[in-house]
Amino acid sequence: MFVQSLAIEPEIIPNNSDAGEEAKPVYPKWITISILIIIFSLIIFFLNAIITFSLMIIGVIFIWRLAKKKLSSENTL
Questions:
Q1: How far apart are CA 35 and CA 47, in angstroms?
Q2: CB atoms near residue 19 (< 10 Å)
Q3: Mean pLDDT across the stretch 2-21?
Q4: In the predicted structure, residue 15 carries a pLDDT above the cut 70
Q5: What are phi and psi of 70, to 5 degrees?
Q6: Over residues 11-34, mean pLDDT
Q7: From CA 46, how far away is CA 40, in angstroms rounded?
Q8: Which among 37, 40, 41, 75 counts the fewest CB atoms within 10 Å?
Q9: pLDDT in tens, 31-75
Q10: Bridge-partner residues for 10, per DSSP?
Q11: Could you write out the DSSP letters of every residue in 1-68?
Q12: Are 28 and 3 in contact (CB under 8 A)?
């Protein structure tokens, strides 16, 4: 899945040289940007789901309390 290339091309450096020992892997920018977009989208999705679920729970609690109050006031008459 991960595409990487070395910053130094090995066919240019002779075999007996140690010039490529400290070469760092270089990742294409599109992989980094794609991963960031996917992570951002997942965060937005989960936040949306959590907020929606929380508001639904608050609404159900509100309706439950109103119904409970209405039933208790009818029983006292």
A1: 18
A2: 11
A3: 60
A4: no
A5: -65, -40
A6: 73
A7: 10
A8: 75
A9: 889 999 999 999 999 999 999 999 999 999 999 999 999 988 877
A10: none
A11: ----EESS-TTTS-TT--TTTTPPEE--HHHHHHHHHHHHHHHHHHHHHHHHHHHHHHHHHHHHHHHH
A12: yes
Nearest alpha carbon to residue 36 among 48, 27, 49: 27
Tokens (6 digits) for 54: 């929380």
**C-alpha distance across the termini of the chain, in Å:** 71
pLDDT top residue among 22 and 58: 58
CA pair distance 37, 43, nearest whole angstrom: 10
Return the number of other C-beta atoms located less than 10 Å from residue 6's C-beta.
11
| pLDDT of 11 | 61
Answer yes or no: pTM beyond 0.70.
no
